[in-house]
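2024-03-11 09:14:02 INFO queue: dequeued item Interferon-induced protein 44, len=297
2024-03-11 09:14:02 INFO validating residues
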Amino acid sequence: MGGGSSSPKSPPAPPRRPTPPPSPTLKTPWRQVSWGNQEDLQYVKNFQLQNDQVRHVRVLLYGPVGAGKSSFINSVSNALRRRITSPALTNATNEEEGSFTKKYETHNIKKDAEQFYPFVFNDLMGLEEGSGRGVRVEDIKLAMMGHVKEGYKFNPASPLSTSDSGYNPSPSPEDRVHVLVCLYSGNTTEINSSVLQKMKAIRETASDLGIPQLAVLTKFDEACPETEKDLKNVYKSKLVMRKMGDLSSKLGIPLNFILPVKNYSEETQLNDDIDTLILSALRMMIDLGEDFIDSKL
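2024-03-11 09:14:37 INFO prediction written
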């Protein structure tokens, strides 16, 4: 008698769906690329310097040990010669062993049986943490001004002196560096502060000399699975965009002068997407070099 009815229980709330992780890629690329377009290849093949004082644009590559400087030279050669080549010797072992490149070398790229392309690359020892290791900043500054002779063996313990046989006392306009290119690995977590200070000192000297500069981000595919799957994702990748922005803010190079490039490494056949990025960077290098030659020499 008199028993009250209990209120009905509300149904249990549906389980919350987990929030999906943010996409590692943007919906649209933040920089446009004409993938597979032959325009840059033809542009480079037809490129000729108009200044009679110099036969070639001299591009100086610098950066930390293991950034891929020698591999970049080989990759340019591959893209232009349409086969796998190796004008610059490279090392596949751990970068902790130090720089594989020891000498100041000029690398030409064959155009045909009788001609070379009107640009050359100079490779040098990599930058390392602390003093007494890697190439010295003073030697890079001398190289920019054309004072380092071909074949000079870098000495991490002491810079090149004016009394050294490797010193060029009267460099010609052709000996001078016309474009300075910093190569940096996108697979590196952080720029070492000691190496960064050296890179900034090199940049300041180049700026004082009026030498144009750009940066190349290598090995980003090793850090970004989306670009490893498909290189065309390079300008959609949030990780690559962040890496390039970080390099720009720390080194002071404008973002539109930083280019991502995948070097040939494990490939035994040419790849159109790899070539697209390489040739885009190369075209900017030779254009900047020609502008410098026309205005300064």
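2024-03-11 09:14:37 INFO annotate: The chain has eight helices and six strands.
2024-03-11 09:14:38 INFO item closed
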